[in-house]
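Exercise 3.2. Students should predict the tertiary structure of the chain below and write it as structure tokens, then compare their answer with the key that follows.

Predict this chain's 3D structure.
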Amino acid sequence: MQQPYKAVQPQFSKMPKYLLLTMRPKQWVKNIFVFAGLIFANDLLLTNPQSLLRVLATFGLWCLIASSIYLINDLVDIEKDRDHPKKRYRPLASGHLAPSSAIVATLIFLVIGLPLAWMLSREVAIILAVYVVMQLAYSFRLKHVVILDVFIIAAGFVFRTVSGAVVLGIDISPWLLICTGLLSLFLALAKRRHELVLLETGAGSHRRVLDEYSTELLQEMISLITASTLIAYILYTLNPTNPHIPTSPFPLMLITVPFVIYGIFRYLYLVYKKDEGGSPEELLLKDLPMLADIVLWGITVVSISYIFRQ
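Answer key:
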């Protein structure tokens, strides 16, 4: 039986610790999507120190801006999080971090992050600004709109991918956007299913939009998006946008398909058999088979792109 909420008094000496926890550094793993353009670029940008530094700077800016959004989300949901079996232990919901401290930190992150992004790349700054506006709309209204809520979650990953390409001034492959968007929808739907299963009959009281979903509906959606993701990736490997990768007599990028299939199947196993999927970044960090699969996929992609160039 869930224990009733009991507030604690925030301690100033521990404020940095709880502020960092609320910034959710584990979720910074999502920002690795900014490296996609660097890896799949036509030129050898991965070995170019200047290009690598620009993408690393973009990664850092995403960590800063995304952290401000996490703070806003926790401020908006502070009362509902106190009734959640897991989120009630977050610093704001538990009382370890004062709301005033979170508000000040949010403003500082935004005031520092957006101007720095403008100095790095105007396009990246615009993408981050649009992301902030979109997430504010999500936090206050759009997270209650069925189906649109998962599209907004997925859009965040696409924004990261696009920003990683524009900071380098390279063309954005439509295949890269399609695969990123579909994979992001897959992760978002799995997250909704996890919330629905975890909260059971009380799901709607914590997140109103969950009343509009059912496990059967989400299962159908996940099945559809899983097939679409695999087909899109396979077509991408058969029609690479990188002209330097040989496609005859055998499209070498097709070798990476088994890693993608295994990764998706492993994720489905964790979602349906282990009731995971609420935090993709945590699964990535703690599930060794998943982590090993992603590392091997990355090594294979880079090897094909950089060793077999014409």
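Discussion points: Residues 114 and 274 are 39 Å apart (CA to CA). The domain at 12-172 is CATH 1.10.357.140 (Tetracycline Repressor; domain 2).
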